[in-house]
Amino acid sequence: MAVQDIMPTTWVGATAKQVARGVRRGDVSATQVVADHLDHIARADADLAAFRVLRGGEAITEAEKVDEEEDLANLPLAGVPVAVKENTPVAGLPTWNGSAAVRTPVAEADHEVVRRLRGAGAVILGVTRMPELGLWALTDDETAVTRNPWDTRRTPGGSSGGAAAAVAAGLVPMAHGNDGLGSIRIPAACCGLVGLKPGRGVIPSQLGADDWFGLAEHGVLTTTVADAAVGFSVLAGRRPEKLVPPQRLRVGVSLRSPVRGVSPDAPNRDAVAAAGRLLAAAGHDTVPADPVYPTRLGLQGIATWFAAAAADVRASGVDRRSLQQRSRRHVALGEWAQRRGYVREADRAAWRVRSVGFFSDHSIDLLLTPALAAPPPEAAGWSSRSWRANMAANIRYAPFAAPWNIAGLPSIVVPVGRRPDGLPVAVQLIGPPGSELLLLGVAGQFELESPWPRHAPGYPRVGTGSPAVA
After folding, report:
1. What is the mean pLDDT of the segment spanning 266-284?
2. In principle, which of 73, 147, 212, 425 could form an S-S bond with 152, CB 3.0–4.6 Å?
């Protein structure tokens, strides 16, 4: 009997594409897949606190409906267990937004991206934790500290921290996230995952008061590039496309930090060098190409970060005094920045024009940078620490993602190895408008040349049985 003909005893650990193929072929029911994953979550999530709430009974019922579908062949995510970030409405659940203080009532309807996931056959297992208002690259609140499966003493990042922890531990093969200043890519880098932030306008945003001034985008976190491609196509409302390995590209390489005084440490510099070698092995050329990050860009980005929080709180009608201390300060600074005229669309537009022109000015197809500057900070009660401590921790370890939200350009984080302490290390690739499939294609070449561990060591914890066979 061929290895590929052996039926797995559990589907925990399978990729989204493996699950969907198994359900479409009748090798397994969606109900069994969901039951397997709920059982795994019951064993593993007590240590991680990835989920805010599970939809156990509802998820089983929805999986049964998938099994009754007559047209499984046209469901790219047939029976795939998926988690949704808790700032995105899921019908029948409150929208927590990372905090009881800003939790909204039970949603009557799904957000459009949740509707598209369900329409593709996915089963929503629950919602994952995030920091209050999605403001921080550190995920915890007064009820729990979300932990990184690679090292539970470390944060999984944020704000899609629960999503990343869930995927890295095999609690789900795919998780929804969103990214306003790095909130998909930072957790992906912390947890050894693939994380794509699409370009502006590719996927309906509809987040908070005004999509963080147009900076926020929806996406998915996955363990493979193929799963990332399927998830992207579903959220974008497109038919899944087969990724084609890109022919010879010219890729700019930069270690320059957007934040003065914050530089990538040696493992992150080494990761960029390793990625350069992978590009060369795939037949691409690399050239030095440093973006010129204006001083005003950093100030504009921070002011917009502040002001987005203020706008969301105003729209929610929440009393600012009910927020965590760090968030109260953030909101107050956002109100002040707007009154002083420091949050201007003209500044953001100027950076977008410069960023798009950067590729033609340097005759490059993509830009390669570090994903992080330092290892993930400790997993701790950051929600009760000072605003200053949170700001310092965020900026010191994760400065590289935010400029590309302001520019509205697509970018992807891809694992390329491990740090000396065993944590994963990753790089970021940025492309011009419309280059999502190109970014995924190059990421696929990285995966082929240098495969990464799909899950953190020791995960998934499946008790008896073994992960699904590819």
Report:
1. 98
2. 147
